[in-house]
Structure formats: C-alpha cells, structure tokens
Write a structure and sequence with these properties.
Elements: E1 4-6, E2 11-14, H1 38-43, E3 47-56, H2 58-66, E4 78-81, H3 90-95, E5 101-105, H4 112-120, E6 125-132, H5 146-149, H6 152-155, H7 158-164, E7 173-179, E8 201-202, H8 219-228, E9 253-261, E10 264-265, H9 268-280, E11 285-288, E12 290-293, H10 304-315, H11 325-336, E13 353-357, H12 365-368, E14 380-385, E15 403-406, E16 414-417, E17 427-430, H13 433-451, H14 458-468, H15 484-495, E18 504-507, E19 513-515, E20 520-528, E21 533-537, E22 543-548, E23 551-557, E24 564-574, E25 577-587, E26 594-595, E27 602-604, E28 609-613, E29 618-619, E30 627-633, E31 638-642, E32 645-649, E33 655-664, E34 670-679, E35 686-689, E36 696-701, E37 704-714, E38 719-728, E39 733-736, E40 743-751, E41 754-762
Parallel strand pairs: 7-9, 7-11, 8-9, 11-13, 13-14, 14-15, 19-25, 27-34
Antiparallel strand pairs: 1-2, 2-12, 3-5, 3-6, 4-5, 9-10, 16-17, 18-20, 20-23, 21-24, 22-23, 24-25, 26-29, 28-32, 30-33, 31-32, 33-34, 35-36, 36-39, 37-38, 37-40, 40-41
Helix pairs in contact: 8-13, 9-11, 13-14, 13-15, 14-15
Length: 763
C-alpha cells in the first residue's frame, strides 16, 4: 500500500498499518513489596460492608445442617451456604470441604473489624474472609471482528496489558500524519479531535476541513483504527489503546494531520509542519506511516543513488551535512511535545516520540537497507513481521530499524477501520510497514497512559518500549518484536529502582498432589519479572496448563492418564536467567469394589418382601461412592436398589430365583454377588416345578437341611414315586417323570412333623 508525495527528485510513499484489543486499568507501579495485612484488607474501600464469608469446622457445619446451630450462635444476623447442595456431585464437594463455607450477614451496625474479631475468636470457625466487589477484567472484548481477524494484537501481548494495567487514556494524544481520518466512523468518531485551531488540520489545503475523497485509499483511517479504535463497544474492531467503552473508560485520542488528499499530497515542508503542529497542540506521539520512495512509478526505474544520498544525509544529524525542515520538525516534536508555551509539562510525557515506517522495499535488496527519514536517529523506525513473528518479505531492514511489529503478509493481513465511502462495512485489510508503525505508536500510547504524569519523559517511554521488546529470529535486522506487556513490567521495575533479576513464581500449592484415579485438582501460579518467556510441561495427558496474563493454572483430570507419578513444570526465563518450579503429582491406581459380606441364599414368603442394605455387602479400597444394579432370572420378581437399600418384593406365586447385585465405582470397575431366592407360601411348604411337568420334576421344600419323605400319587391314589432324603429350599431334588402317563398327580412332602401337598399335571 503506497501513497506518493512529490518533492524535488524524491517521491514519498505511505507504507502501512495495524491495531489491537481492550482491557481494564489495574494497579499503580509497584513500590517495595509489602505483604497485605488483615487491617489493610478490612480497611480497603473495595471490601463490602455488612457481610463476610466464614469457613466452619466439621462439627459446627454439621450442627448447622441438623438445625441445632444457626447464625445467632455465631453472633451474626443470618447465614447460608456459599455452595448449595450439588446433588450427585455433593460427595466430592464435601470431600473438598465446600459445604463448610457460609455467607454470613452481620448484625446492623457491626463493622468488618468487629465481625472479624468475633468470628475469628470462635472455636469452631476456621477462617473469616471479607467480600469484595467483582470487576470483570476484559480478556475478550466484545467487538465483532476482534477475535475473528485481529490476530496481530496477541503477537504483541496487548490483551495482557488491557487486563492487568491499562486500556489507554484520553490524556494521550497521537497525531496521525497521513491521509485524513474518517471522523464520522463509528469506531473513531468520539476519539478524533475536531478539526480546528486546537485539533485536526488539513495540510494539503491548509485549512480545517479533513476530507475523504476520490483517490484516497483509507490509509489514514486504517492507521488511526490500529492505534485507537474504540474497544469493547459491541461492534467493529479494537485499537491498541482504544479504552473500554463498556466500563466507561476512554482510550487515547487521535489528531488527524492530513498530508494526503486523493491524488495530491502536502509539500515536503508541510509534512514537517504537520509533525510540528502535533507538538504544539497536545500530541506526544507522532505516527508517520509514510516515507520516501525511490522508484519511478511510470518506468519502474529505481533511483539508488538518490536513496543513498538521502539516507546518508539523514544519518548525520549533527555534522551540518544536511538540513531539512522534516529533521527540524522531528527534533522539535521530540523536545517540546508535552510542554506548554511556558516550558511547563502539561502532557503525560515531557517530550515526544516520533515513529516512522521502515519502508516496503525489502523485495529490492539493493535499497532495502536504506530508509529515510526512518533512519534519522531521533526517529523510532518500525519494521514489519508476519503472523509467525518473522520478517515480512517487503519490510526494509538494517541497523537503523529499532523495533518491529505485525504488518502482515499472505499468512494474514492487518484488519482495521476504513472509511465507509471506500469499504461499505467500514473495515478491511492492509499490509505493510505502515501497518506495523501504528502498532508501536499504540504500544507507546499504552505506556504513556500507564506511566504518564509529571516527571515521566519521552526518553523513559522510549527506553521501556525498546528494552521490553523480545528478540526474534529473522533473516535481516528489523529490530526486536514489540512486547508491550514486558515493556510495562520493565518500566515498573526501572521505576522502582530494581535491577533485572530472575523471575519469581509464587505458588498457590507447591506440595505433592495425590489424586484418586478420577480426581481433579488445579492450582494457579503467578509469574513476575521483566521480559519473561514462560514455558510449561504437563507431565502426562491428565495435566493441562492454561494462562491468563501473568497467571498460569495447572489443571489435572486424573481419569485421562494411567496410574503413576508424574512431574509438571513451569519455567520462566528472562535476561537474568531461568527459574523452574516442579510440581510432582501422583495418580493412584483404581481398585474395583469387593464383596465383603455376601448376601447368601434367602427364603421368602410369596406374600412378603425383603430389604437388604447393600452398602454393607460391598466395600471399596478407594472409598468411592458406588452405584448398584440388581438383575433377576425368571418370573416376575420385583427387585431394585435405591439409596443403598435393595428391596425384593415376592410375586404371588412360588418359585426359585437367582439374583445378582453388581456394585460399580465411578470408573466402571465392578464386582457382583449372586444368591438364590426361594419364594413359597408358608402354608404350601413344597414346590414342584415345572407344572405341568414333562420329563423331570424339580422339588424344593420350605426348610434347610430337613429330612423329608417325598411321594407322588396318581389320580387313583396309587404311589408312583417315594423317597426319603435331606433337602433344602435352594437345591432342587430332581425326579425323572418321563415314564408317567399324562394326567393329574399329587406331590406330598412330609418333614418337621407336617405334611404338605401340591397338585401336579402332566400333558
């Protein structure tokens, strides 16, 4: 994407742009670290008056649940569980002590300090915790296109800055020396300074009428969107320092200094005037996504000698070899931006920063390392990377390039705002070092937003920006990649007088974890320090690391790995070295339940029922909560298990049944207990089956180990079978009846001094 300005012998070309997402402002720069005391916490204006959280011990929690203790016993007004009953997950909730947390309302007039004294002195209260208002930290702005297309912000860690430090401040003004910015664009309208004597200005026409006209490409609007498109407003895209509309936080403001209008451009001197105008009207950052071009667009001829001459002249600012209003304007901006006419600092920085695109001639090796005015020492020159943090093929390079940022290429271009007269949606893609430059201007704007104030200088901002950048692997020098989060942390350390030291990893839980085979655990580790690169190892498929800014959470789901001992690691590396924390964890083997007390065979009257507590039948080495299932063979016997009790309801007919009760743990490991059940009426005393009989007759009696006389009589009273034997209710005595003729028969069993009969038939 090129814009051309005509000056003697040399053509000037606009390069390209970029933009980023939104967060919430967090703490002031760190002073010497001091552990917060309970007095600090109770006196904090963020603490909510009138209620606290308490952790009861098991004894008192049990009494509260049984209704034998209440809030009054604690001297409080009311209380309720923080974590309601979890149903099927209640056992594991209790295992973690969740049922002991209560939300307690204080008596009227009781201060948090008084409540803390009362509750913390109670013998059965383990902990007292003040409550705080929650504030959503904006990890994911709700702008329509942010998560879809604006990959480039994660490459420079802008979202981390939004979450932990700043979203930008309207005290910071960035002048965009470029095409005019679409001042009616919904993502820009509220942040572009109105055209006038104290705001935006058209340096092509030398008036206050900012225009979008035929021949414009939308370049200036695209650049402005990358720096400051309004964030978290439910639509469009995000800007690097675009505030947080949902939270009522405004971002940085844009001053449109129009130097291109359609096919026309301002004179070379008016480019310089545009830069100076910014310094005189409140801007402390000047974004210049343009530069000289050395190619005749009609013939394709490259003016290499001219390029070298201009490069060399800009390379020697103090030797009198070359003077130019552009150099003077740059020097002026660097020296006077942020000051009023009396020499008093009125802006967020004392002095200003001027950013220039390095150039898009990288595909022309003979001039790719020559970029003026980007090579001027007072300028911060910006090279371009692609989605993989590698030099974009077109980016100019050389020792003069100070820093790089996403400019896009075929792997993904830079998405930002465009005038709706050019793109009806108001959004679109561009690529080039022009797109990289506003990323860095936006990063500097975030630094000025966070650190800005009396005594903060542009020199400090420049130092933080460059020292926080991280080295990348590239074929030619385009500087380190901007890492705005590390830049802020560098500034915090520098401001506190700290030297660069090893990072610290604070542990929420550092002991050895032991998990049941289906257990879950997680812990969060805070990693602090300057210029950190964090690496993690999970140790097994059961573990997973996730991160949110400087917080890294290790989560383990034991069911996803075999039993064994593993080690997770988190390492943090900066210039001072590497520190590693090891977190060993053991996943215990799962043990199937066992039968500890077999049920045994049962004899049941056919008009009765039986209840058996199966929790006493089975045991589990892992102390798992077991699930039970019962199956039956034959007939219409009704048997089921509920709440650990097996209920058997006899059918209204005699018979012999086999029942199997199966106990399973949460992983499906199981064991079964099988027993027999004989159902017969207490008045019958004998069962012969099947009835009608065919070849064999099975006979059982309502007794165990009794000596019985068994006889079968025909319809005429004749004896067809007779035998004396020891019998029981669970082992049928089998009689061969295949030789009997069809007809009616009588089965007679005599035992324990009584006689029992049953009518049989044979077909």
């Amino acid at each position: 994407m090129k814009k051309t300005i005509y000056i003697p012998v040399i053509l000037a070309a606009v390069l390209s742009c970029s933009r980023e997402e939104t967060p919430v402002i967090v703490p002031e720069p760190l002073e010497a670290h001091r552990e917060a005391t309970i007095t600090d916490i109770l006196d904090s204006p963020a603490a909510i008056e009138g209620s606290v959280y308490v952790l009861l011990d098991d004894e008192l929690a049990g009494k509260v649940e049984r209704g034998t203790a209440d809030a009054a016993s604690l001297g409080m007004a009311s209380m309720q569980r923080v974590f309601p009953d979890a149903g099927k997950f209640e056992p594991r909730s209790r295992d973690m002590g969740m049922h002991r947390w209560y939300d307690v309302t204080l008596p009227e007039g009781t201060t948090l300090r008084q409540a803390h004294e009362i509750l913390s002195s109670h013998a059965h209260v383990d902990n007292v915790c003040p409550k705080f208002r929650m504030r959503r930290l904006m990890d994911n702005p709700n702008d329509t296109y942010y998560s879809l297309y604006q990959w480039h912000y994660s490459n420079v860690r802008t979202a981390d800055v939004w979450r932990d430090y700043t979203v930008g401040s309207p005290d910071v003004i960035v002048s965009v020396v470029d095409e005019g910015v679409d001042m009616s664009h919904p993502d820009l309208a509220d942040i572009v300074l109105a055209a006038g004597s104290n705001g935006s200005r058209n340096f092509v026409k030398s008036n206050y009428n900012i225009t979008i006209t035929r021949g414009d490409t939308g370049h200036g609007t695209h650049v402005a969107g990358t720096i400051a498109a309004i964030n978290n407003n439910g639509a469009g895209c995000c800007g690097m320092a675009g505030g947080d509309a949902a939270a009522g936080k405004r971002g940085v403001r844009i001053m449109s200094c129009q130097v291109f209008e359609g096919d026309y451009s301002a004179s070379d001197a008016n480019f310089a005037a545009a830069i100076k105008w910014g310094a005189d009207h409140g801007a402390v950052i000047s974004n210049n996504s343009w530069g000289y071009t050395f190619t005749n667009e009609e013939t394709g001829e490259i003016y290499e000698d001219t390029a070298r001459n201009l490069f060399n002249n800009f390379s020697h600012p103090d030797e009198g070899r070359y003077t130019h209003p552009l150099k003077a304007a740059i020097d002026y901006f660097v020296k006077y931006a942020g000051y009023d006419e009396h020499g008093e600092q009125t802006g967020p920085m004392a002095g200003g920063l001027v950013f220039f695109s390095a150039g898009n001639d990288g595909d022309v090796p003979s001039i790719a390392s020559l970029g003026a005015p980007a090579n001027y020492s007072s300028v911060i020159a910006v090279g371009a990377t692609n989605r993989n943090d590698i030099r974009a093929y077109y980016s100019d390079y050389g020792d003069y390039v100070d820093i790089c940022a996403p400019g896009g290429d075929g792997l993904g271009q830079i998405f930002s705002t465009l005038p709706r007269s050019i793109a009806p949606s108001g959004y679109g893609y561009m690529l080039g070092t022009s797109m990289a430059c506003p990323h860095v201007s936006g990063g500097a704007a975030l630094l000025a937003s966070y650190f800005g104030g009396p005594g903060f200088t542009a020199g400090k901002c420049r130092e933080y920006l460059l020292e926080g950048a991280r080295a990348i692997t590239t074929d030619h020098n385009i500087g380190p990649l901007m890492d705005v989060y590390s830049s802020i942390e560098y500034g915090i350390m520098e401001g506190s007088g700290a030297t660069v030291t090893l990072p610290t990893i604070s542990t929420e839980y550092s002991g050895e974890w032991t998990l049941k085979a289906y257990g879950k655990m997680s812990a969060t580790y805070e990693v602090r320090g300057f210029g950190i690169t964090v690496s993690t190892e999970a140790g097994s498929p059961a573990a997973k690391w996730s991160s949110t800014g400087k917080y890294y959470t290790l989560s383990i789901d034991a069911i996803k790995a075999d039993a064994g001992t593993y080690t997770a690691r988190i390492s943090a590396t900066n210039k001072a070295g590497t520190v590693t924390l090891e977190i060993p964890y053991t996943i215990l083997p799962n043990h199937a339940p066992t039968v500890s007390s077999p049920i045994g065979n049962l004899l049941l009257d056919r008009s009765g029922s039986a209840k058996i507590e199966v929790t006493n039948v089975f045991s589990d080495e892992d102390e798992d909560v077991l699930e039970y299932k019962v199956t039956t063979s034959g007939g219409s016997l009704d048997a089921s298990v509920s709440n650990g009790i097996m209920t058997i309801t006899a059918p209204n007919q005699s018979g012999l049944y086999t029942l199997t009760v199966t106990a399973s743990d949460i992983l499906g490991a199981s064991v079964s207990d099988t027993f027999q059940l004989t159902v017969l009426s207490s008045s019958t005393g004998v069962i012969g089956y099947p009835n009608p009989m065919k070849d064999v007759l099975n006979v059982v009696i309502a007794s165990t180990g009794a000596t019985a006389d068994i006889a079968i009589y025909g319809a005429a009273g004749g004896t067809v079978y007779k035998e004396t034997m020891t019998m029981d209710a669970f082992t049928p005595h089998v009689i061969d009846v295949s030789g009997l003729a069809p007809g009616r028969y009588t089965l007679v069993a005599t035992y324990d001094g009584k006689k029992y009969t049953q009518t049989l038939s044979k077909h």
